[in-house]
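Same chain as my last thread, 185 residues:
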Amino acid sequence: MISTMLYYIIYSSTVLIYGIGIERTAVLCRKKNNLFLIFIKMMISVISTAVISFWFINGILSETGLYELYPLFVLLLFFAISIFTEAIIRITAKISACEFGISVVFTFLGITEATTISECILISASSIITFFLGIFFLYAVNRRMELNEKKQEYEKLGYILVSLAVVMVIFLFWNVSWINTGAAK
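reply #2:
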């Protein structure tokens, strides 16, 4: 279980390797206020949708041969759960915690790459944790750039994306299986 979680947080990071939400992390790193509510909403929406969908897909759709309909079911279920949690957050905190596109992709990733419900929960949660770790890292980079110099907003985004590329290379550097061994002979 721990190895699965660490695999999806560090080595096969959904943000750094798959590229899911790279642009969104660069945008959210500038906002400090609603991150905790967005995190809670994403965890509730993504994990509950992934678990219910995983059970429904493996229990009903695969047995009846209607496996092709699972994206439709997942989207409808995600809409319902996401709207419900958004309504609760808006009523209680009076703040919007909208985050749709990345949450849906994390849900599909958790469902398609898992073989058990526990793996589905771990993969979905790891994807969300990786996303928010990336936000906090980029917030630190953005804060550091603000302390050093006053740059234009378009220049900051370039520096942030270059910083992300450097982190991607650092995480992949220890795995040298991609090096062509034939060229070294």
